[in-house]
Amino acid sequence: MRIRGEAAKIVAKRRGKSPRGCQSELGGWEEAVNDILNFTSGRTLRPGLVNLAHLVDDVLADVGSQLRAQGIAVELDVPMDHVVRGEWTALRAAVLCLVVGAMRTMSDGGQLVVTSHVGPHGAELEIADSGPGIPETWGTHRFRSRGVFSRKTARLGLTTVERIAAAHGGYLIAQNCPEGGAAFTLHFPALPAKKAAA
Fold first, then answer.
1. Which residues form the domain of 109?
2. What's the total number of domains in the chain?
3. What is the CATH number of the domain that holds 15?
4. Is the Cβ–Cβ distance between 40 and 164 less than 8 Å?
5. For residue 22, which of 75, 67, 74, 73 has the smallest C-alpha distance?
6. Which of 23, 49, 59, 73 is deepest in the core (most CB within 10 A)?
């Protein structure tokens, strides 16, 4: 599965550009992320069932060459049966933004870890990196559950990611990992229970 419609044109335009080194290539992806987030923001969502494994695979396929160029190892633990209700294009934009943000912190290599969990209270998709982590000056109050990110984080696209999560009935949490690096977790509400057959 790939990005659809106008968002697909945005990514195709970026893919057609010749990279001028790793940072130039990453800068092109950041522009594409901003373009997609702007396209996604404010639209009426058309939700369906989204397979998280397919979603993550799709994003990583698009940035795979850049991950390799930067020496970033990827560890995945997203089971094929983890599904959320949402719009593919919007959720893909949010995940792409978080992945590119993580790549930006690991210009000299590192590890990107993507995991998911589904429980009775909903689903989580976590994107963690081995970068320097969240600056202490941000403070934990800037990343409240169901909260709104401060304007100072708008340059990272986190405000839009938060809005996308909220539009899906969820929220975004950011925190530093005990072993170093930062983790951004998208929380989604539980799917409605299937009615028992009569």
1. 5-188
2. 1
3. 3.30.565.10
4. yes
5. 67
6. 59
The tens digit of pLDDT for each residue in 75-87 reads 999 999 999 999 9
Position 8 pLDDT exceeds 60: no
Tokens describing residue 142: 């800037």
Q: Is residue 193 part of a domain?
A: no
| pLDDT attached to residue 175 | 85
More confident residue, 108 or 153: 108
Token digits of residue 167: 């539009």
More confident residue, 39 or 100: 100
Question: What is the Cα 116 distance to its own chain's centre?
Answer: 12
Give the span between the Cα atoms of 4 and 7, in whole angstroms.
6
Residues 6 or more apart in contact with residue 169 via CB below 8 angstroms: 188, 189
> Would residue 197 count as lying in a domain?
no
Whether residue 134 lies inside any domain: the answer is: yes
Q: How far apart are CA 93 and CA 85, in angstroms?
A: 15
Query: What is the token pair recorded at 136?
Result: 């202490």
Instruction: Flag whether pLDDT at 70 surpasses 80.
Output: yes
Task: Give domain status of residue 167, yes or no.
Answer: yes
